[in-house]
Amino acid sequence: MEPVGLAVGVVGLAGLFSSCLEAVEKVDSYKNFGRDSRSLATQFDTDKHRFEQWGRAVGFKKGKLSDSHHPALDDAQTLAIVHKLLASIQDFCSGADDTFYQQTTPADGNFLKDSLVPARQASLHHGAPMASKWRKAAWALSGKTKRTGHVQTFAGLVQYLYNAVPPDDEKGTLPGYGARNYDSAHPHAETKRDLRAWLGCPSPNDLYDDSIQKRLNGTCEWILKRDDVRDWLAPNVSTDASSVLWINGPAGFGKTILCARLVEILSSSIQTPVAHFFLSSKFEGRDDPFLALRSWIAEVIFGNQAALDIVCKRRLAQHEQIATRSTIVRLFREVNQTVPFCTFVLDGLDECTWLGDNRNSSDSVTRFLNDLRQAIANTTARILVVSRSESEIRQGLSLFPGFIEYTISPEDVHTDNITYSRSIVNNKLPNKEEMTRLSLSQRMADRCNGQFQWLKMQEEVLRKGRNKKQLEKDIDETPAGLDRLYDRNWERIEKLRHEERTRAVSLLRWAAFALRPLTVCEITEAVLINDDCDDLPLDEMPDSVDDDYIESEILGLCGSLIEVQDSLPESTAGSRKVHLAHFSVKQYLFFKIPSRGAVLFANLNLHASKEAIENTALAKLCLRYISFPRVWDDSITKGKDGLGSSFRDYAAGSWFQHVDISHAKDNTLVDNMNAFFDGHVQTWGSWRQWFDNNETVVPASRLYYASRLGLTGVVRHLLQYCKHDPNENSKSGRSALEVACERGYLEVAQMLLGVGTSVNVTGYGGRTPLYTASMNGNLEVVKLVLDNGADVTITNQYGWTPLNAASDGGHVKVVKLLLSKGAEIAIADEGGWTPVNSAATSGHLEVVKLLLDKGADITTSNNHGWTPVNSAAKSGHVEVVKLLLSKGAEIAIADKDGWTPLNSAARNGHLEIFKLLLDKGADITTSDNEGCTPLNSAAENGHLEVVKLLVDKGADIITGNKNGSTPLFLAAYHGHLEVVKLLLDNGADTKTTTKNGWTPLNAASDGGHLEVVKLLLARGADIAVANKDGCSPLYSAACQGHPEIVKLLLAKGADATFAENKGWTPVHIASLKGYLKLAEVLLEKCQDCVDVQETVGRTALFFAAMRGHSELVRLLVSKKASVNSKDHYNVTPLIAASRNGHESTVKLLLQAENVCIDWKDDRGLTALSWARKSGKIQTIQLLLPKSSVIEIQPSSEDPITGKEVVSYDVDPDWCDVCTAHIPDGKTYYRCEVCYRGDGFAICLECHDVGVKCLDDSHKWLLKEAD
């Protein structure tokens, strides 16, 4: 960008930031998030505050960008990205952009990809995570989940602003550290949340922890005596070991608890990563086995730096809101290729609802096992699967090389059966003699045939009032085997009155076939829906949902076939979840629950058919429910449990997920869907608003929603019989054709084009149907729209062509088709990214080959100077790098920051690429614009093997970057122990300092890296060297709250009395920040530190009192700290505590011996005066009886100054005289001389009453409000 254009952009950015502030302020979080989401409201308010802080820190003031703004904003590409981020925030908070709120539902199959801001544009150079989050998350279709998505999206946008332009006070820019602040070794919590969200990790549950807790001592140990299993579990894993172990057994044999025990054993016995996933029908969304891969990846990456780097880079290279299945499978393979000997454990594969479905389908257990096998092929990964013995699972696992199987027998678990049986009997019959209990438990164990679930279901017959003979008879008469036990429960149900029997069957149907476990309130409404209802029968609702209701109307009807469990520790009765007692109950019900008046014959091959029949029935019930007007009338909702609309979120978001509604065969369901969409159902508008996330957006056409959901029959109905205009509302950005092409609905797209839909209609962000189909690799749809005249040259609003989108996604067949239709190979987007650069960055080798064969230019760089080889090297795509080098790619060309491919590979730890580049003659001495060499970058990021290679090649380990940060300093600061050790072994100097005087020891102490500190001390690091601010290693460790490092440094002779430039000792900073344990350590070593005064004359007790750290005050007083010490302005600790309203601290100080209560500071105010000024009633009540000075009672007006009561809340920004809180953006005065340039600030009130600086000759400088 030319200088003039850049200046205009900067000015415009200031106006946009002001608009964002206004939009953010209009969001009333407590109103928008509701009473049940106060924590979300608090999080939103916190992120709103962070957003405001970021703006001030980078230079936005009074609607303008100051001349001293952050230098990163002078970079054209950074400016463009910040502009787009701010625009997204403005849209998010204003709700003005209709399409900003487009949703993705779990039924989508392939989650909606966000092509609005491609990964190329959304990736700042050198790793700052900027991808996606350009519009809202893929919204889950339930109220609180959607609100959570809102908050997380806003938080992500704010965090990416911090990543794009880090404020100068960020930790990454500590003195001597240098400009780069991305620390992938310690990812920000928001980064972790973002990665988990992008990976699509399922919500955590307690199944593993519960299984560990439920396991009785001594049980499950038998498995360790089975040779094959014991050998497989052994920690001395080798490449020759079998990759897959399958432990199977009948239902009810305690396999889940056994699996949890095996995870426990593996985690404690081997040093390599162990990740587990427990698939259970009892938890929402846990019927998809591919969720295991998503969860496994997350478990590994947060414990392994190399794996984390891989996922972070893939995250930046993809613009999907949630990673697609194919992306996850590729990622899983990459992780296993990078991290050796990972062990993955999967329990409950037999509970997957896909089992028995079409094995050629993409949603089948067979497909999952096939993808899993290919993903771990030729790696050292190992898989443990625990499940029932199902033929589909056996067939899939048998294809794994070295497959081992162990089948659990009743004899294996008999001893455990006895232990469990004794536990049940002892718990239920504590009033019986021990011999009686032993006899009964043995009797139960002998009859259970290995089934723990059978034993559990005996609890209902073990009643304290029965004698031994009666109890033995009850046990003997209990049917053997689970099926016969279930038969007894079913016979009870069949004997119920008709109404009760109907209700019981309905409860079991919903518990068995709902997409997730329903709450008590939800299922209470669900069982009331039938074909005879014209509206929700409110008169059949219970008076209240409590334990009595659950016992009589749910458990009392279904017996032990069903369970009601707490969803949270403090769950109300209505929010508890209704589950089947065991997965085997569902299989049993396949043969019992009537299907439209008939009973399905007991044929295992009909399971899938039965599942489809039941889901069709539930889909119709959900659709009928949302057609009830009362459901949408919130004024009639009953009580705190929300009866009357509890089932609304589930029904509204699930009716189209229960079956393949694109080809629904049930005539009634088809008719009901048509009626719902064609205007015959009056609740359509309410559902549409719900679907659009309840936002004030421009409604799209009915045809759009039908196309979005892939309702082929409904689309046909609307076009042929209702004569809907296919181009209606197309200008809103919500085009029916565009969304159908995006989601790959070929038949829907054919119908829309057949009735005259404009083939080049644009949707959100300027996306055409061809663009969205190309982006998602929908080849047949791409062919269709091209045959209908789609224009391959139309770009989205950021300059991306369909060819660029397809290249970035790796869709080689689509790329080939587009090229054959004349797509231009050299057109770049706004950021300068060409198709070949996009494909290279994403690692799509075949696409890169194709584009090169068609003449793509490998020397063209993007706007920041990145060529395809630099992009591929940075992202770790070794095969792409090899290909580009073979085609003559230049390895010495640097980007605008001076980064060459070698530097990129070093920073990201891509060893194989690094070696490849060295073999091609890359220069290891080349540094970037900040003076960072490849060694600096590798050491900073902890890539030991790269550092080794560089050291062996003679890289300079002494010279630092422009800030003086040497490789040793950077490695020490980030805690990379092995890198530090290697550098020291090769002559790195522990005494070298940065330009700001930071030594490696000071950096490691500040970062809290205990082992690094130990190593540096052992190698002769000077414990007393301070930086230019006077901060010694001891002070740095104390400042960050690292007590173990403080102990170590003190033991090595560090001086606890040594003060930094402002006179602060470690005790001062520990007292200010409230580090109690740390203060105890310091005071134990240095009693003389108690009353040391810093530059303003303040002691540790003053700071502890000022901040209200009452336990620290107690400690300091016990160490004989002077309670009447006075600072430069004659302020005592009591006054400091009183004016800040710290009641407990004031109470402690008043109990101290000889405390002076009525002392007046230089402003003539006592502790009571200050308490009155700040309106702290409790503090006033403590001081009044002790004070001899007559004080006026507090009021809403300050009687001394005549101003409203001043707030003195604790905040990092305070008046250095009276310690009053100086709110962000407020005017104040500062002395630029004192504190050696750090500034000495005072509030307006202190200035107005004539308070002077520490030196009376110093002048106050007015700092205007931002």
Keyphrases for this structure?
single chain; 1266 residues; mainly alpha; Four Helix Bundle (Hemerythrin (Met), subunit A); Rossmann fold; three-stranded antiparallel β-sheet; 58 helices; ANK repeat; Ankyrin repeat domain-containing protein 52; HeLo_dom
Q: How much helix, percentage-wise, in residues?
A: 40-55%
Q: Strand-residue fraction? A: under 5%
Rounded to an integer, what's the Rg over CA atoms?
A: 34 Å
CATH architecture of the domain at 207-408: 3-Layer(aba) Sandwich
SS field, number of helical segments? 58
CATH topology name of the domain at 207-408, in short, is Rossmann fold
CATH class of the domain at 207-408: Alpha Beta
Describe the oligomeric state of these chains in a short phrase.
single chain
- Write out the CATH superfamily name of the domain at 207-408: P-loop containing nucleotide triphosphate hydrolases
- What low-confidence regions span 5 or more consecutive residues with pLDDT below 50? 1-9, 28-39, 95-147, 169-186, 355-360, 596-605, 1192-1211
Domain Nephrocystin 3-like N-terminal: 218-388
Protein name: Ankyrin repeat domain-containing protein 52
Keywords: ANK repeat, Repeat, Signal
Organism: Colletotrichum incanum
